[in-house]
Amino acid sequence: MTVNLYENDAYLKDCSAEITSITDHGIVLDQSVFYCTGGGQPGDSGILKIRGDSVKITNTIRDKESGEVIHMLEKNTPGSLEVGMQVHVEIDWDRRYQHMKMHSCLHLLCSLIDAAVTGCSISNEKGRLDFDLPEQSIDKADITAKLNKLIKENHDVGVYWISDEDLDKNPELVRTMSVKPPAGNGRVRIIDIKNTDIQPCGGTHVAKTGEIGFVKVVKVQKKSKHNRRVAIAFA
Questions:
Q1: Which candidate, 2, 227, 234, places its Cα nearest to that of 116?
Q2: What element of type H or E holds 8?
Q3: What one-character-per-residue DSSP string does 159-207 give?
């Protein structure tokens, strides 16, 4: 399985790696800085460099059958790729950093609304969370002000790991109903926004909330009887 270097350092922009497998859609590497689509966050795109050639990596996904992380390549890949080849990969940093800021902002949003999360979506311009709320109890202006206050306070955002057993003993850490936390491998990755929010998460995040910049709640929608969608965007 691919070693996900971003799990401990989301600011890594590139790395050298070895091709361990080739599929119809792309390649599998022994290690990578590319985030794999999941948890509402899009997979990274970027560049694969090999033998003087550069090839676009259009997306990063997880194979449903093998569980391997696939770096999807554009169709006109030059030359032949082989298992064992040494390559260099580099993410589209500007796009990734926007995802990092938005993902961290959604954790802040989660801390302000006392309800389970039923859905999530992240892009480089906006994001949204769906909450299990029977009534319309979210005020756009109030949440916008509280979000920007937390951002301005510049809280540290840390990463640490706990065991699957510890997560089972602390079910209150899990805020999502629609997406299972990244457990099952013996340990669980926790994102800790100091004095604000703690929850399991496999995504990439900023180191301090001040990096997010100002945001605004652009829409609150009733999606079903027990579902309220809160959409935010960079201001």
A1: 227
A2: none
A3: EEEEEHHHHHH-GGG--BSSS--S-SSSEEEEEEETTTEEEE--S---S
- pLDDT per residue over 216-232, tens digit each? 999 999 888 888 999 99
Task: Give residue-wise pLDDT tens across range 11-27.
Answer: 999 999 999 999 888 99
12, amino acid identity: L
Q: Which amino acid is at 144?
A: T
CA 109 to chain centre: 15
Asked if residues 23 and 70 have their Cβ atoms less than 8 Å apart, the reply is: yes
Parallel/antiparallel/unpaired status of strands 215-224 and 197-200: unpaired
Q: What percent of the chain has pLDDT over 70?
A: 95
The candidate with the shortest Cα–Cα distance to 32, out of 82, 88, 96, is 88
Q: Could you tell me if 63 and 26 are in contact, meaning their C-beta atoms sit under 8 angstroms apart? A: no
Tell me how crowded residue 57 is: count the other CB atoms within 10 A of its CB.
24
Contacting residues for 140 by C-beta, under 8 A, at least 6 apart: 217, 218, 219, 220
